[in-house]
Design brief:
Strand content: 15-25%
CATH topology of the largest domain: FAD/NAD(P)-binding domain
Number of domains: 2
Strand order of the largest sheet: 13-16-15-14-17-18
Bound molecules: flavin-adenine dinucleotide
CATH architecture of the largest domain: 3-Layer(bba) Sandwich
Shape: elongated
Distance between the termini: 11 Å
CATH class of the largest domain: Alpha Beta
């Protein structure tokens, strides 16, 4: 039975799981959360449904700036997907698989996930302090954790303060400063799983239109990332799942001062689009160029697409020249625009970069710099793809940090 007195900084996904595991292991646990409630970000996950994890967990789904990522194997050897599914099952949450391996709570309610975590923390008599931001931590023979309201003392600290993404939901980057004060270093942090700004000149008129297509990211002419699905045009640029999927690489390049462009294939279903357009033009007796495209792409996209290749919208479809038709094929299958930026931190779902992994023990998640300090969740230099991978990382690392901070041996659930 652990005699640890553990203070957890951050009542998010990783901190709540760490609290449950360490309290089950006998530790006296206090969670300190800067917002008025715990688990606020969880409530926003998966559009309020909480995409808890994914059946396709694999190392290639996670990213780090560190050269060595043996932490992946160490973490998932101790707490993999099945362990997290079991953990939630015991709390009353069965999971259901929806599209492409994504797992959700059966009720499709993120609030259910927060509720069961909260109920278990209460049952385990974990002290939950809200509305207090930790501004400083000191360590002599024990930890002194200072908040806006008072000072807390503990034998161990678990730093679970998240990254910088969506500060409105709690994680505002203050955790980095706490770690740095202890001598930890950070890799460069930048927003990921985020919408992209582009220089497409007709954004205002196409705003709100969607295409089921493929988006490809380029460094000059070199393809560097691609993803498919529903792409949404907005007044600043592009959004939608495939855009979020390629955003990590685009955002990193922006951060490095590198330029990128994207090409959108709006009609990937046509193998030979030119042959298809010839047939369509032959059937379009009396139609104009813009009428030719009605029913093929979103109507709001027709005028910008034709303008981008200098085809008069009133021109008779049958008068479209071969070179104009070929330019149209290019615009429909590779609509090109430069990436000019990303949206702000408040729109990003995850932070890339963070506390250097070389300074954290891969197995126990203990700091290699300060004894009895443990680090878990998004604050570390690890981020996952969109689709449940980030919550899985937060839950798994929270589980491990909670286990080792409280003694490291018990699998006892009571
Ligand atoms: C809109 C949105 C949707 C998402 N959807 C999904 C999804 O469906 N599936 C998925 O896998 N991932 C999703 N994510 C990502 C996922 O939510 C995060 O990766 C995960 O919550 C990180 O957990 P964490 O515990 O490390 O950090 P957080 O959840 O950010 O928790 C950190 C907590 O620490 C508190 N805190 C920070 N600093 C201090 C301080 N100094 N003192 C006291 N408290 C502090 C914060 O208020 C916060 O509550 C989404 C993210 C967003 C923003």
């Amino acid at each position: 039975m652990s005699k640890s007195k553990i203070i957890i900084i951050g009542g998010g996904a990783s901190g709540l799981v760490a609290g449950i595991i360490s309290a089950r292991n006998g530790a006296k646990v206090t969670i300190i959360e800067r917002k008025d409630k715990i688990g606020k970000k969880i409530l926003a996950t998966g559009n309020g449904r909480c995409n808890i994890s994914n059946t396709d967990i694999g190392k290639e789904r996670y990213h780090t700036e560190n050269q060595v990522f043996d932490m992946y194997e160490e973490v998932f050897a101790q707490c993999d997907l099945s362990k997290i599914i079991e953990f939630f099952k015991e709390l009353g949450i069965d999971v259901v698989e929806l599209e492409s391996g994504k797992l959700y709570p059966m009720s499709l309610q993120a609030s259910a996930v927060v509720d069961v975590l909260h109920l278990e923390l209460v049952r385990l008599k974990v002290a939950i302090i809200t509305d207090q931001e930790v501004s400083s931590i000191e360590y002599a023979d024990q930890f002194k954790v200072i908040t806006s309201e008072r000072t807390y003392y503990g034998s161990h600290v678990i730093l679970a303060a998240g990254g910088k993404s969506t500060p409105d939901l709690g994680s505002n980057g203050t955790g980095y400063a706490l770690a740095e004060k202890f001598g930890h270093t950070l890799t460069k942090v930048y927003p990921s799983i985020i919408q992209l700004k582009t220089d497409f000149p007709y954004l205002r008129s196409v705003k709100g239109s969607k295409v089921e297509g493929i988006i490809s990211l380029y460094d000059d002419n070199e393809l560097i990332a691609t993803a498919s699905g529903e792409i949404l045009f907005t007044d600043y640029g592009l959004s939608g799942p495939p855009v979020l999927d390629i955003s990590r690489i685009a955002s990193k390049r922006i951060n490095q001062g590198l330029t990128s462009s994207v090409q959108i294939d709006m009609l990937p279903c046509f193998g030979d689009l030119d042959a298809y357009l010839i047939k369509r033009i032959n059937l379009a007796s009396g139609k104009t160029a813009s009428e030719l495209l009605i029913g093929l792409i979103n109507k709001r996209l027709i005028m910008p697409v034709l303008k981008s290749v200098d085809i008069d919208i009133h021109k008779k479809a049958c008068d479209i020249t071969k070179s104009e038709r070929q330019a149209l094929v290019k615009a429909l299958s590779a609509l090109s625009m430069n990436v000019t930026g990303t949206n702000q931190w408040n729109q990003s779902q995850v932070t890339s970069g963070g506390i250097n992994l070389a300074e954290i023990d891969s197995k126990t998640l203990a700091s290699k710099i300060i004894d009895h300090l443990y680090i878990c969740g998004e604050i570390m230099d690890v981020d996952g793809d969109c689709g449940g991978f980030n919550l899985q990382w937060a839950f798994s690392t929270g589980y491990i940090a909670g286990l080792y901070a409280s003694g490291g041996i018990s699998e006892n659930n009571n």
